[in-house]
Amino acid sequence: MMAGSNGALNGVKILDLSRILAGPTCTQLLGDLGASVIKIENPVTQGDDTRQWGPPYVTDADGNPSDLSAYFMCANRNKRSVAVDITTAEGQEKIKWLASHADIVIENFKPGGLAKYGLGYDALSKDLPGLVYCSISGYGQTGPNASKPGYDLMAQGFGGIMSLTGEPDGRPMKVGVGIADVMCGMYATVGILAALRHRDQTGEGQYIDLSLVDAQIAWTINEGVNYMISGEVPQRRGNAHPNIVPYDTYATSDGHLVIAVGNDSQFRRFCDALGLGDMPDDARFATNPARLSNRVALNDRLVPALHARTSAEVTRALEAAKIPVGPVQTLDQVFTSDQVAARDMRVEMQADPGPVELIGNPLNLSRTPVQYRHAPPVFGADTDDILGSDDPFGTA
Questions:
Q1: Which of 257, 324, 354, 376 has the most Cβ atoms closer than 10 angstroms to its Cβ?
Q2: 343 part of a folded domain
Q3: Which domain covers residue 298, as residue numbers?
Q4: Catalytic annotation on 32?
Q5: Closest Cα to residue 213, out of 164, 166, 160?
Q6: Residue 346: beta bridge partners?
Q7: Looking at the predicted structure, is the pLDDT value of residue 86 above 80?
């Protein structure tokens, strides 16, 4: 959608003191929903750390690189960039002034990092009791690890997901993208919206303390609860599922397919489609608990049967039987697919150096669709306009 659309969060004003990925993921999502976001960047370091996390960078018409790295752009749409040095008295006054116009402040400094500048929640909320203030850190504001720095890789290691990811005989493996950061940003979004709901009903702002590690532990979901119920430490299974069989990536004669058989009736249709109609009547495979107990024996039958067919043959047979099956696509296949085009998951925006392509927002709201108003900004692009305005947030 273009500027001027009515977003669900139109009128919500966010002062974004976060950088890298967790906080920016949250504020980009809120911005897509219509909120006005001012991103504060450090002039000493020339902005968000991720501006330097390239190549690739967006280039201008002459091929000159900008400070818009792909990494920075992935989480900084629908924001305006203001350069402020918060270590100076002048910078601190500017932040306080901007906060006085904001509904939300979000930051990811080390615990206590902003308090020493008079910009922590306790200081700001004295004059701004309706302020919603969200702090994101590696381990949270309390606990024995609170003072330790936090990055996505650390959170994936400490929070357990690396112990569950990778081949059974391989080393622990992180998820291919910064998923601890991204999911922390999602939890921050939910927390902020809940706090706004409370503020709108009562007039009371509040403080949100969120950590990468807490968020990552929360989304160990079934594996975390598997451990707490059984007392057994889950093991890495590659692409296999801990509670469902068959649910895995299988090799065909010319590639790999994802196959997900979620219940016993699907399993019977699955076996019939592969010419293995005797398997569902075998007590070892008749129910999902039995298949879990006999995973190796089951795969001894399935693996050669699938490997004897092409991916196209297996896909046709399983789709006809209404069994979930799909390809393992590379990103060039993903972003050139008809499905991505139909769902508007690849969008083009006009940035200062030139046109850029970005990943679309997956939310499809019937009344208040997401908006793509501002391309990711070059460093400090909006400093003069915003700091020289009587209404710094203006329109979203």
A1: 376
A2: yes
A3: 262-323
A4: no
A5: 160
A6: 359
A7: yes
